[in-house]
Amino acid sequence: MLFLLSVIIQVITLPEESMRRKICAIGNSRGVSLPVEALEKLKLAVGSEVEVQLDEEHGRIVIEPVKQDKYPEGVDAEFVSQVNDFIEHYKPALKKLAE
Predict the structure, then answer these.
(1) What does 4-70 look like in DSSP terms, one character per residue?
(2) pLDDT number for residue 75
(3) Under a CB-based contact definition with an 8 Å cutoff, are residues 65 and 48 in contact?
(4) pLDDT tens digits, 18-40
């Protein structure tokens, strides 16, 4: 019972930036959905690379953005995100133009 009490106390005292999510099936893999607001704060978008580390000592999985040095000067992750949104929104029209 003491363990349950410890867990409940941790849940109650979670910092504001903590987010509780569920693990879901993605094909043969497993994943966790990330809130758009959190991704926007970190300037991440669909396709952004992240590094996943297993911290067995503390019983946690750490996900961190990979520093993007591949973009040309003046291009950042936010611009890439906007271009990706544009492409996704206009994909049918862009496919017709390509034909």
Answers:
(1) HHHHHHHHHT--TT-----EEEETTEEEE---HHHHHHTT--TT--EEEEEETTTTEEEEEEPP---
(2) 82
(3) yes
(4) 778 899 998 899 988 888 888 88
* CA dist., res. 72 & res. 2, Å (int): 55
Which residue's entry shows tokens 């911290």? 55
Residues constituting the chain: 99
Distance CA(66)–CA(50), nearest Å, equals 5
Q: Is the distance from CB of 73 to CB of 60 less than 8 angstroms?
A: no
**pLDDT of 39-91, one tens digit each?**
888 888 888 888 889 899 989 888 888 876 667 788 887 888 888 899 989 99
Query: What is the set of domains in the chain, with CATH numbers?
Result: 19-98 (2.10.260.10)
Amino acid in the structure at residue 35: P
* pLDDT score, position 10: 40
CA distance linking residue 51 with residue 67, whole number of Å:
10
Q: Which residues pair with 24 in a beta bridge?
A: 31
